[in-house]
């Protein structure tokens, strides 16, 4: 999910029955559904309070740029943005999936991942 989608996320977009979030405004302009695992569901239920998922005093958080920079500075991390984390996640995910496919072929699996 992109930063703006997270910051404007409201509880009306959360569906406990389907265990998912429905994003209405996306970069592509098309709505999409994001499935949630049990850990995410538990945390969301634990934090539920007010209209927005991420809020301060009942209002949606508009930007995290200054807070994120402060946390990075305190942790000694340089040249990092929320987008850097998003990009890194997908790179690591890609290599992990590639590793599992290669491992499967090495173990003699005949079926390919689809």
TrEMBL record:
InterPro entries: DNA_brk_join_enz (IPR011010), Integrase-like_cat_sf (IPR013762), Integrase_catalytic (IPR002104). Gene3D superfamilies: Intergrase catalytic core (1.10.443.10). Keywords: DNA recombination, Membrane, Transmembrane, Transmembrane helix. It holds the Pfam family Phage_integrase. GO terms for biological process: DNA integration; DNA recombination. One of its GO terms (molecular function) is DNA binding. Residues 1-114 form the Tyr recombinase domain. PROSITE patterns: TYR_RECOMBINASE. It comes from the Bacteria. The chain crosses the membrane at residues 89-108. This is Tyrosine-type recombinase/integrase. It comes from Beggiatoa leptomitoformis.
């Amino acid at each position: 999910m992109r930063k703006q989608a997270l910051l404007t996320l409201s509880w009306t977009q959360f569906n406990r029955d389907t265990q998912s979030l429905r994003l209405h405004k996306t970069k592509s302009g098309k709505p999409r559904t994001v499935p949630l695992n049990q850990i995410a569901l538990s945390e969301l239920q634990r934090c539920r309070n007010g209209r927005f998922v991420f809020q301060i005093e009942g209002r949606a958080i508009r930007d995290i740029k200054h807070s994120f920079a402060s946390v990075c500075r305190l942790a000694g991390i340089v040249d990092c943005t929320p987008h850097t984390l998003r990009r890194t996640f997908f790179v690591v995910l890609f290599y992990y999936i590639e590793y599992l496919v290669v491992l499967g072929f090495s173990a003699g699996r005949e079926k390919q991942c689809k």
